[in-house]
Write a structure and sequence with these properties.
Lysozyme-like, five-stranded mixed beta sheet, two-stranded parallel sheet, 3 helices, 18% strand, binds zinc ion
Amino acid sequence: MRAINEIIIHCTATKAGRELTIDELRAWHKQKGFKDVGYHYVVMPDGEIKNGRPITMCGAHCKGHNANSIGLAYVGGLDANGKPADTRTQQQRDALKVAVQVLRDVFGDVPVHGHNEYANKACPCFDVHKEFGKQPKSNQL
Ligand SMILES: [Zn+2]
């Protein structure tokens, strides 16, 4: 297994209410030249957590931070006009919390970051630090 020292949260940058399957996401990401879905886990609007690429594989979700992170995305992130917005359903909010807790149980008390901390993007369209509280420091590998 890779060393994991952070969890990075994303949105799929799809409009609120738009259904998105893992197969569709995989096809988009393969078109971009990725081997598989860029993220490791994807949270559906109903709160179901789907597997993206295997967790043993480096992700393709955050330039410069893929080697030792886990990519977790929720479906949504754009409002009806295509503007960045926190479109998470309550089920997605709850599922993200559960996913982070489970991953921390497995990989230790790793920090949670938003993609927008590392790239000039709105993704994931909410304040990750406000949501997940004070963060432990990343282990510098
Ligand atoms: Zn992102």
